[in-house]
Amino acid sequence: DLRKQARQLENELDLKLVSFSKLCTSYSSTRDGRRDRYSSDTTPLLNGSSQDRMFETMAVEIEQLLGKLTGINDKMAEYTNSAGVPSLNAALMHTLQRHRDILQDYTHEFHKTKANFLAIRERENLLGSVRKDIESYKGGSGVNNRRTELFLKEHEHLRNSDRLIEETISIAMATKENMTSQRGMLKSIQSKMNTLANRFPAVNSLIQRINLRKRRDSLILGGIIGICTILLLLYAFH
């Protein structure tokens, strides 16, 4: 029952983290598109958008799921340490360790995605404030057009750099997902190898017993043949 609850929570967490990651990657592009649709500063850049509210809601939900999964893992640990459970049950210990590793991976991924989202939002707020100051300066007077153009070019360069950073983050996240799947495959292979290794000693012991019995039978047969040969020789000479 505890394993079933843990798997259900892990599936929910996996779906939530995927949606959370997509929200993080789409946040910057959405804010860029919103700024391009409006040519004036009448719409504030730093408003309480639906994405910000969605971020807060999803973060709370994921933290609650992580807490529930932690509680389930603690209950499974208490069960494996109870008096009625054999202390040498390798399958239970392996299952418990597997669920602990999954919980650790999900917790690390959540904190990393949350930190990336906060960094992107802070950067967007900063760039939005700079752009607003530039537009205000440009609209206030017709002088220093050269400096205004330089500011706009620098802003464009910053936006291009942001896009490159976002692409790099996306590639890194995809690489991380691939590494996670490969690690799961390697752990599965390792568990199978451990199972085979645990079975091999019993097979080797059985083979050794068979060989010892063959040697004993050979010695007995050789002794009988030797005794019969000696008796035949004695009979022949007498």
UniProtKB/TrEMBL annotation:
Subcellular location field: Golgi apparatus membrane
One example GO MF annotation: SNAP receptor activity
InterPro entries the UniProt entry points to: Golgi_SNAP_su1 (IPR023601)
Gene Ontology biological process terms from the UniProt entry: endoplasmic reticulum to Golgi vesicle-mediated transport; inter-Golgi cisterna vesicle-mediated transport; protein transport; vesicle fusion
Location (main, coarse): Golgi
Pfam families attached to this UniProt entry: V-SNARE_C (PF12352)
Keyword Transport: yes
Transmembrane segments: 219-237
Keywords: Golgi apparatus, Membrane, Protein transport, Transmembrane, Transmembrane helix, Transport
Membrane-topology annotation of the record: Single-pass type IV membrane protein
Cellular component annotations (GO), alphabetically ordered: cis-Golgi network; Golgi medial cisterna; Golgi membrane; SNARE complex
Family affiliation: Belongs to the GOSR1 family.
Function: Involved in transport from the ER to the Golgi apparatus as well as in intra-Golgi transport. It belongs to a super-family of proteins called t-SNAREs or soluble NSF (N-ethylmaleimide-sensitive factor) attachment protein receptor. May play a protective role against hydrogen peroxide induced cytotoxicity under glutathione depleted conditions in neuronal cells by regulating the intracellular ROS levels via inhibition of p38 MAPK (MAPK11, MAPK12, MAPK13 and MAPK14). Participates in docking and fusion stage of ER to cis-Golgi transport.
UniProt-listed PANTHER family: GOLGI SNAP RECEPTOR COMPLEX MEMBER 1 (PTHR21094:SF2), GOS-28 SNARE- RELATED (PTHR21094)
Protein name (record): Golgi SNAP receptor complex member 1
